[in-house]
Design a protein that fits this description.
The protein has 164 residues and is α+β, with helices and mostly antiparallel strands. It has 5 helices and 3 strands; from the N terminus they run αββααβαα.
């Protein structure tokens, strides 16, 4: 059941990402930009040949290889280790789904379609897959903090002594 939930959740999130990118390409590319909340957030069609904030632009071979290896390792972790905590499981599904969504773009088109433009600040244009990765990492940090808060004080002191 765990594997089925993981596969279906990942597939659904990747499908949503790819559908949104298809919509952006078909509907937004011809007009370039479209305001949603003027001065706050808009839609702007951008093709990104790099990673976050266009870093490593033009290095598609490296980005594809690195991302592919990282996602394979993450998938192996999810299916072999099977995180016991639900929040950790969800976190990694988000990261895996976002990574796969952007990897599909890189492999098929050599660029990633971005379309969410925060106009109230100077920030990179991004997409749903990027949101999945960031929310996944945020949830993972929350999971770590919550687990640390649950541990008994005596266990924390023992671990602290062992680290010295």
């Amino acid at each position: 059941m765990y594997a089925l939930i993981t596969l279906l959740s990942t597939a659904a999130l990747v499908a949503v990402d790819q559908a949104l990118k298809y919509w952006a390409t078909v509907s937004l590319a011809p007009v370039g930009t479209h305001p949603l909340i003027p001065g706050v957030v808009g839609l702007r069609y951008v093709l990104n040949d790099g990673a976050a904030f266009s870093m490593l632009g033009g290095k598609q071979g490296f980005l594809i290889a690195f991302t592919g290896i990282a996602l394979a390792a993450l998938a192996a972790y999810l299916f072999i280790k099977r995180p016991a905590r639900r929040l950790e499981h969800i976190s990694w599904i988000f990261v895996l789904s976002g990574g796969i969504g952007n990897l599909i773009d890189r492999v098929l088109n050599q660029v990633v379609v971005d379309y969410i433009d925060l106009q109230f600040m100077d920030f990179a244009v991004f997409n749903f897959a990027d949101i999945l990765v960031c929310v996944g990492i945020g949830l993972l940090l929350l999971d770590i903090i919550l687990e640390e808060c649950k541990r008994p004080r005596s266990e924390k002191k023992e671990q602290d002594r062992g680290a010295l």
